[in-house]
Amino acid sequence: MKIWHFNERVYRRWVVLIEGSSEDFAKFLTDSGYKHTDELESIVANGMCIQLTPENTDSSNDCFVVWLMEWNLPTLVHEITHLVIAAMEQVNTPIHEATTEQVAFYTEYWFTEFQIS
Predict the structure, then answer these.
(1) Beta carbons of 51 and 63 less than 8 angstroms apart
(2) pTM across the whole model
(3) CA distance 90 to 108
(4) Measured CA angle at 6 (ends 25, 26), to 5 deg
(5) What is the per-residue pLDDT across 41-100, written as a single tens digit (0 to 9) for each?
(6) d(CA 7, CA 39)
């Protein structure tokens, strides 16, 4: 399993990128105090984006976790899309024609960050 940590300064997001098996991902979430581990028993996806918050963990976590079973660009783009949409919702920025450039730049930012890891 590989783990990278990112601290993004514009929206102040802490993001963890994990590449590894679904068992590795489930263990990481369990170790992080994630309360909904029963959802992880039969993961059939190749990736996932989960937000860890004080409400869904046993700790004061406040981060996004992006997991890829293996390094795969289509899956990476898919999960970055989930990350960007969730981050935009957190800062009350609706995604529509007037915000497409902001969304595109934020998507490009995460793609670049993850690619150079």
Answers:
(1) yes
(2) 0.91
(3) 19
(4) 10
(5) 767 789 999 999 988 888 777 899 999 999 999 999 999 999 999 999 988 988 999 999
(6) 27
The one-letter amino acid code at 22 reads: S
Q: Residue 34: how many CB atoms within 10 A of its CB?
A: 21
Q: Say which DSSP state 61 is in.
A: -
Give SS3 for 36: coil
pLDDT at 67: 96
Instruction: Give me 96's structure tokens.
Output: 């529509």
3-state secondary structure of 5: strand
DSSP state, 30?
A: H
Half-sphere exposure of 84 (CA within 13 A, CB side): 20
Strand, helix or coil at 64? strand
Instruction: Give the containing element (helix H, strand E) for 80.
Output: helix 73-90
Closest CA to 63 of 107, 4, 1: 4
